[in-house]
Amino acid sequence: MAVEQADVEFVVHVIAQTAVDNEKYFGDLDSVVGDGDFGYSLARGFEIVLADWDTLDRTDAGTFLQKIATIITSRIGGTSGPIWGTAFLRAGGVAKKSETLDGTVIVEILTAAIEGVKARGGAEVGEKTLLDAVVPMRDTIAILVAQGAGDQVVLDAAATTARTSAEATSVLQARRGRASYTGERSIGSPDAGAIAVAVIVEQIAEQWRQRATASA
Amino acid sequence: MAVEQADVEFVVHVIAQTAVDNEKYFGDLDSVVGDGDFGYSLARGFEIVLADWDTLDRTDAGTFLQKIATIITSRIGGTSGPIWGTAFLRAGGVAKKSETLDGTVIVEILTAAIEGVKARGGAEVGEKTLLDAVVPMRDTIAILVAQGAGDQVVLDAAATTARTSAEATSVLQARRGRASYTGERSIGSPDAGAIAVAVIVEQIAEQWRQRATASA
Amino acid sequence: MKKFMNDPKQFVPQMLKGIALANPDTLKYVPEYNLIMRSDAPRHDKVSIVQGSGSGHEPAHVMTVGKGMLDGACPGDIFAAPPMDYVYETTKLLASDKGVLLLVNNYTGDKMAFEMAQELSEADGIMVRTLFINDDVAVQDSTWTVGRRGVAGNFFVMKAVGAAAEAGADLDEVVRIGEKVNAVTRTMGIALTACTPPAKGAPLFDLGDDEIEIGVGIHGEPGRRRAKMASADDIVDELLGAVVGDLPYTAGDRVALMINGLGGTPISELYLLYGIAHEKLAAQGITVTRSYVGEYCTSLEMAGASLTLVKLDEEIDGLLDAPAEIAYRVF
Amino acid sequence: MKKFMNDPKQFVPQMLKGIALANPDTLKYVPEYNLIMRSDAPRHDKVSIVQGSGSGHEPAHVMTVGKGMLDGACPGDIFAAPPMDYVYETTKLLASDKGVLLLVNNYTGDKMAFEMAQELSEADGIMVRTLFINDDVAVQDSTWTVGRRGVAGNFFVMKAVGAAAEAGADLDEVVRIGEKVNAVTRTMGIALTACTPPAKGAPLFDLGDDEIEIGVGIHGEPGRRRAKMASADDIVDELLGAVVGDLPYTAGDRVALMINGLGGTPISELYLLYGIAHEKLAAQGITVTRSYVGEYCTSLEMAGASLTLVKLDEEIDGLLDAPAEIAYRVF
Ligand SMILES: Nc1ncnc2c1ncn2[C@@H]1O[C@H](COP(=O)(O)OP(=O)(O)O)[C@@H](O)[C@H]1O
Ligand SMILES: Nc1ncnc2c1ncn2[C@@H]1O[C@H](COP(=O)(O)OP(=O)(O)O)[C@@H](O)[C@H]1O
Ligand SMILES: [Mg+2]
Ligand SMILES: [Mg+2]
Ligand SMILES: [Mg+2]
Ligand SMILES: [Mg+2]
To answer: Which end of chain B has fewer CB atoms within 10 angstroms, the N or the C?
Structure first.
């Protein structure tokens, strides 16, 4: 598998659109044991991404991703601003240094984003954050890329892993973010950020398929 | 018909007990278009009357009634304090000057109380206040007393008139008290003060009968 | 009903005790008459200013006792005018050589209690004047009604007479000032929810999830009419329409603008309303030069707000500028 | 949901505009960064004090900007830490020769935004320190959590560092004072109702008609546990038990006692709680010598209250006594 800059832009567009479309749903998820602003925060940032879409700097995929990071950092508040901003910033950094965007580089990009998030927020896997969806997803992608799987196969598997892992956060006790203040009461509902990741990756997989069909 | 001081005390006791027993009901009536404090105000004053009952000055019926007026004036707030206080004060004034408490004097007492209330609050019949129950009741009593009717007959008729007149305040628009601020919206529910008068007079008639039966 | 309280009958006394404990140096509490008074009152070099009215409107009036404002407040129970005795005894306790001014929001119960107290106090040789405040434009004024209600605009009268008294004005002058400020002050309120008196335990009226009550009184009395919930812009238009048109306030006027919270509305929303009203007034050529945003006269925990305008001149500016030290404070 | 607003997205900007319009002489509003700042800032003879945090806690912190308190506040949207850029740009705008102190309530989002901003500002050559406030005893503190939350007690830190900065203290000294006050300040809150963020349009949690949430956070985060509604006496016992036992405060201590309203609770109930708490502390030999009753740090229109204690000494007394002039004012 290998992707073009246009594919990166496509994926970012799906992320942005999904965040905007699910404002209410993501907010409701965050209000179970959090403070309910997650959907609103993401939507306010990504609607700027969509509004500015045509004028974004497209020099290369890395610059493009870092431009997204800037918008997020300046527009998204809460925990999500620094977390998602750092993820895009680090992703862009790796993309910039890479000649091609093959499967290995995609895995590297994801890993850089994950490390950025960990460094920024101090969370580890198992603490009931979006890392609990992103890290297993990255692992799945890494395995399939190593096996030489095709892009749709990789994406479908990524979506499945993200969904399963996100749902599995239900049994965890939150150790990070506002949800952690509720202690044991955070057990029993999934993490809002993890579910958001699952929804987004499902959308990416689905729309990737539709695009392929449409252009076929 | 003629009554003793003990009868006056009996009637006052029924008034006090009825006010305390109906705190919630009278308050609810007042909250339809008023501010809901009528039941509370009356109950707070008359529960002192009951608490101090045994130590009240009983030199004569007039002094007794004026002592009740003092308690009301010092304990009841809102519109009801001055209105009911003035009524008892004026009633006591007439009782003091009268040798006996025959039917004519009872009518005089009621009239003095009514005039006091009118002077104090500036209301006339037809403005949707307790006067709309008390004045017709006083008129009924006056007619029956002139006809030489017995006490129970007078009381039963007084209760009926008070009830009918109180219910009839429903069609009136309030021109006095807090209910008047709602203008036409005050039409359609009876005046709290008028209904309270009806409930109290019904209790007096009923308990007068029971007392007679018990002592017979 | 969920309220921080023990027994409804102890609601007012326990609140008053809290005020007294929080202000041990400046205030005195006389439980017999629900009286909160300046500990240095009466001061014979100034007219004493007394307010009564029901409880449930805090900070009005027990928390606005202090230098430059009230000398004492003797409220009744929740939404009930004080018993006449409270006012009479308070007047005697605060009788100053320069006299006593009784400030009364214009309601039947309050009017009677204060007039009776004035009569009795005058018989005792105390110099007493009574001043009625009636700023609420929601209520029609006519000869056969009890007249307009006194609502949040009473703050301006209280502040002005307080400043005048502190400066040593005599009773006639203090009354003149109070009447003058009352005459240029107009208010209208709007409720988003009803309120629940502790002793009643249930809301005073029912308001649907998308309904508001326009022209509501401060005792949970229903207002002019019920309407559908509307945007802040539309609500400000409604309130300004009623208030501006009443005096009327006209282009070229300088005004004080108050957005008063009724108890349950957060100050964020009050400032939001303030900004909108300020700009809409400017568009009509009416300049806001003094702003008041917060809770001045509430209805327990009712969500809602009232809008007050005061037409300013140099004299009123001076009185509103004068320092005051009251119990209701934040820092 | 019934709120005075036009569009949820304009809630915070329209509120900020109202604050600016109400305080034209003393405050400046920079819409790009939700910034309310002193119009005379930065003053190079004093350390600049900046607060961020989410909106919905008013008067914290946009209404506590002014002489003797904050130089600027750049809140995020309702309950959301400000985007990092707001803090960074604010720090640059308010950079004083004596440095900038960033006050941060200890939440993940705020912490990250302020730390990133500090890094960038320092790279620009600005002297910046960050001080975390974490007074909430409801939250367990341990190495694997994000630590305690900053809640209403932040007022005391803000007031103390504001006074120190105004008096000319250098950045190290201002930080020392802030840390000292934070170290002796403890708070716990209780909710009677949930609150409704404008953009969400529905309450953040469901609370039964007879239920309360003990140890609630100021963002509608559920608390330690849910309980049945109780008397004011019992509620004060619960709050005092948690707060007094934590530092602990002991017999012989002199303290400031704050009863903070969470937004929807009227001040009458707050004073009622105050009186009860004051007396219960006295019974334990703890003397309240400074009282704070009102709204300091709210959760939109949530009904509820928090109780804060600060252990006092002469230095802290002096700082809390110092004059301050803030936008949140009533008279
Ligand atoms: N320290 C952290 N590291 C990574 N992700 C986190 C961290 N804390 C919270 N999150 C994620 O952020 C989500 C909440 O985001 P948001 O609502 O913007 O934050 P806040 O708690 O500041 O309101 C959580 O569901 C979780 O997935
Ligand atoms: N001016 C008046 N004269 C006589 N009775 C009045 C007058 N105004 C009100 N009332 C009576 O008082 C009752 C309300 O009493 P209360 O609730 O104590 O007064 P408030 O309106 O001050 O809350 C009314 O139902 C009416 O019967
Ligand atoms: Mg959140
Ligand atoms: Mg009433
Ligand atoms: Mg009343
Ligand atoms: Mg948040």
So the answer is: C
